[in-house]
Design goal:
With about 80 residues, the chain is α+β, with helices and mostly antiparallel strands. The chain has three helices and three strands, in the order αβαβαβ.
Length: about 80
């Protein structure tokens, strides 16, 4: 995964303020809808993207210095396809 993230033009991180296991389902679904719109816009601009939802949350939080009340949901690398 690291190679994909470092070679992308940019990475978008969608986050939830709160805990994904205790927040209302609608709040979590909004994040998935947001991620879908980001991916659709990337395609409209001639770019590619891929949502990554399997990562070590604690490591992402540590690397990005995120507060404890924010849960990363997706990392979306975006860039032009070769």
């Amino acid at each position: 995964m690291g190679n994909l993230l470092t070679k992308a033009m940019g990475n978008v991180l969608t986050m939830l303020v709160g805990n994904v296991l205790t927040e209302p389902v609608g709040k979590v679904l909004d994040i998935y809808n947001c991620a879908q719109n980001i991916e659709l816009e990337a395609v409209a601009l001639g770019m590619g993207s891929v949502p990554i939802g399997a990562f070590y949350d604690d490591e992402v939080k540590k690397i990005l210095n995120l507060p404890k009340n924010m849960d990363p949901i997706y990392i979306i690398p975006i860039g032009y396809q070769k």
